[in-house]
Amino acid sequence: xxxxxxxxxxxxxxxxxxxxxxxxxxxxxxxxxxxxxxxxxxxxxxxxxxxxxxxxxxxxxxxxxxxxxxxxxxxxxxxxxxxxxxxxxxxxxxxxxxxxxxxxxxxxxxxxxxxxxxxxxxxxxxxxxxxxxxxxxxxxxxxxxxxxxxxxxxxxxxxxxxxxxxxxxxxxxxxxxxxxxxxxxxxxxxxxxxxxxxxxxxxxxxxxxxxxxxxxxxxxxxxxxxxxxxxxxxxxxxxxxxxxxxxxxxxxxxxxxxxxxxxxxxxxxxxxxxxxxxxxxxxxxxxxxxxxxxxxx
Length: 297
Ligand code: SF4
Fold this sequence. Notes:
- This protein has ten helices and ten strands.
- By secondary structure, the chain is an alpha/beta fold.
- The model has no long low-confidence stretch (mean pLDDT 96).
């Protein structure tokens, strides 16, 4: 049976309702838990630095993502400029912290989605989309009307407003949040977000309620939740608590990519100022298995 992405089943009226809700939210911005309450439509900027315009840094067929997203022809990534987390160790700091990117209209963004489809990419992978939710939902609607039929991947940092995630019900097919930290002190020092884990858990529960465990057809993910977790030196992320949350409150079968590529960038606390060791990485893998997680990818 042919896969039909979620947004293809949404009526024009339902799409418009969601766009109107998001438009209201960005006039007193609470798109993410920072709740800056700036009027983005008037060009005001909050913590993320994004205003009323949409900026993207790059787009193309990407082969560095998980195999179930990359397939044969690549994941159709669109990298957004700015970020609502602004982690001090970010490897993409040019994009997320320094704002390198080009201004595009939502119509141009829709055309990029269609271009990626034409290139046979397996999905539209929106990287760091949270602060542009309003723009991206409009772009998806336009692209859908012009023939887009690929699943939408919401590739976010995990610091999400659950009320906004509820609006995305019926638009996003694959949620791919990071769960970065359970330790609030680490979240405060590295991302100025001491409530990170609480907000992330709320959002991930809602994401899972919408899309469930990952569904794969012919080796390619079509729908579901895929979690990423980056192991930090000295277990500063609090990995065990994250795995326990996933096992106990989401599903033992939830797909999780435990990542090892932490590199020290920026002005880091001394004990973090090194890559992780092989032992730290394999300890994290063992921890996940011991907690009962079965779908490590
Ligand atoms: S999206 Fe940006 S402006 Fe809006 S609440 Fe988050 S950080 Fe603030």
